[in-house]
Amino acid sequence: MTREILCISKNIKEIHYEYEDKVEAKAAPPPTNESAAASPAVVAAPVAVAVSSAQAEFGSIPDKAEEMPLGELGAALQLSYSGAIGKDMSALISRLPGSKMPGRFATGIRSGGQVVPRFRRAGVWRGAAGAAGGSAGGAIINLEEFKKFQQSQDAFVSQQLEVLLQYLKQDSRDGYRLHDYKHADYMRVQDELDSIQKEHGENYLKGIQPVFDPLKARHFDFAWNWVQQTALEMFFDIIYGRLKTVDRDITAKCLVIMNRANPALLDYMQYYLNHTDASKGERYRLAK
């Protein structure tokens, strides 16, 4: 076996197996006795080679395989064939790139290896599809027919909503009735305000408006306010005779007053003590 180097630009037909039809040979002269005797040996040689190649490829072949039809031979070989490529076929495939392909062609033959991947043609297809879609003109419709179609669709949707509301035992006009009632109430109040303004004037209405603002309200929930409240309660409890004995609660209140005392509390209680008349009784003198 010899290796033949082919050129892609010159030997296109040989690379792609594009051979021209051969001219039919002239009729051979009738065989003589010597040639007739030698022909069985010549025919038997290719048959023996094919049988040996099949045996090397499939492992075992039935007896007299050369005399069996191809259909029966294939069915018989299928029973013992494992599906893997044999030694003989592997050798032929390995020699194929070197003998029939260009010099730089060394890619192994595999399933679909010579097929162009689809993603390479995706860009070409997208470009062609986009150009075709952009070049196409828009659909031409009649504006009046389109508006009629929209109105029919809106009417159909309204009918469907009415059916669903009837199934739910609701009335679609409840919202309109509530709006009419609120509007009538609003107009009644507005008429009353207009009559009052007409009778008393605009300055009167502005003068009777509330001036309270929640943001301006003062809150006295603080420790210095509660200590004044506690001290004042103990002062009047002494005057009115409710505080007679000193127990743990009274001691706890005194400690709270001492801990929260400040100059404002001292001035506050000093004012009450200065205005207490000790001549009114023993409790006043005790409180002072």
Q: Radius of gyration over alpha carbons?
A: 59 Å
Strand content: under 5%
Low-confidence stretches: 34-43
Mean pLDDT: 77
Give the CA-CA distance, first to last residue: 138 Å
Q: Would you report the number of β strands?
A: 0
Distinct helical segment count: 12
Helix/strand-derived category reads mainly alpha
Note the overall shape: elongated
Taking the sheet with the most strands, its summary is: none
Q: Which range best describes the helical content: under 10%, 10-25%, 25-40%, 40-55%, 55-70% or over 70%? A: 55-70%
Summarize the helix and strand pattern as letters. Answer: HHHHHHHHHHHH
Instruction: List the quaternary state of the chains.
Output: single chain
InterPro entries: Fas_alpha_ACP, FASI_helical, Fungal_FAS
Protein name: Fatty acid synthase type I helical domain-containing protein
Pfam family, one: Fas_alpha_ACP
GO molecular function: holo-[acyl-carrier-protein] synthase activity
